[in-house]
Amino acid sequence: MVTPVLVWSRRLFWAAMVLTLAVSLWDYGGRWHTPGHYLRNLVMLGLYWGPRIAGPFLLGWLVLRVCQTTGWRRLVPTLGAGFVLMGLWASLVEPLWLRERTTMVSGAPVGASPLRLALVADLHWGLFVREGDLRRLVARLNALDVDAVLVAGDWVHEPPLDLRGGLAPLAALRHPVYGVLGNHDTGAPGPALTEPLREALRAHGVRLIDGERVTIRGWELVGLSDLWGGRPRQDIRQLWPAPAAMTAEGPPRLALFHQPDTQDLLPPGAVFLAMAGHTHGGQLWIPGFSPWWLRHTNSASGRWNGLYDTPAGRLLVTPGVGLVGVPARLGVRPTIDLLELRP
After folding, report:
1. 103 and 89 housed in the same domain
2. CATH number at residue 133
3. Calcineurin-like phosphoesterase domain location, by residue (predicted)?
4. Residue range 88-101: average pLDDT?
């Protein structure tokens, strides 16, 4: 039996869907867009705003249907309500449930100073990650006792045109910030915003080190450009002219790049520790499917989250803090990796 309450709950849901479309169209304007993917971006904005505007009404409608039906007829709305509830969790809760993960990496060369680093990746400010999210991330990073913050690429994802204004929260970071660009920052895929992005990050105190080396408390940090949108092989030829980089002379070496598979381009023993992102740890973790998907799309080497031993040295892959593709995380919380490097 269809009651007036059920009818009105359904009407409210469809009204919320119309509002979702209107808000998505409003939000669509004034952004950098990947050429040829304009409709895709509108759909993704609908996926972003839908759970926030229409999601609670859909859940309420389904719960009312469960309450007002009996027997086997309850099965479909019950399953639907469970699916919607999981979707709301993945869209509205887990992406904001930022965690800190500490990894101690011992065995540094004798005489090397202890070093504490905060590693993040895949901020993806733009479609799904907004200015308020950046402010919350900066507040968490500022509360940490670290020597530097490292950002392993993919700063943006179809962001507003005003890069300098939108990325302004980064200027409040109290630690030195070093970073590299990722594939979404270099048009692989993504809009042609690399140079404006460089300028915006530089204006807020971020030092990009693609193809460069810097020194942090006696450690040498080397940055490599992106595997798809840069020239990491050329960077490596310039920065590792010798067959092996780890020698008794010189400071211990760290490397920062976006994609984990860049590690396989390095010579044996090249680094004490390398750091990467790109994989989001799967972002939506589906046992069985997610490892297959990651291996065929993000990391052929099978390195997508955690610490790995490789011929070139150890590699830490962070699951990142942002969102791409769909505005949701499930089973893979956004993560700030705290690295403690010790002798």
Report:
1. no
2. 3.60.21.10
3. 115-280
4. 98
Same domain, residue pair 213 and 164: yes
Mark whether 290 and 151 lie in a shared domain: yes
Of the pLDDT bands very low, low, confident and very high (cuts 50, 70, 90), residue 246 is very low
* Claim: this prediction has a pTM higher than 0.90: yes
253 vs 244: CA distance, rounded Å: 12
> What range defines the domain where residue 8 resides?
4-95
Q: Is the dihedral of CA 148, 100, 141, 334 positive or negative?
A: positive
For the cut 70, the answer to whether the pLDDT of residue 69 exceeds it is: yes
Please list, in sequence order, all residues whose beta carbon lies within 8 angstroms of the beta carbon of residue 257, skipping any fewer than 6 positions away.
152, 153, 180, 223, 224, 225, 226, 227, 232, 263, 274, 275, 276
Distance CA 216, CA 251 (A): 10
pLDDT of residue 249: 62
pLDDT surpasses 60 at 165: yes
3-class DSSP assignment, residue 213: strand
Helices 38-53, 4-28: axis angle to 10 degrees equals: 140
- Residue type at position 145: D
pLDDT recorded at residue 183:
97
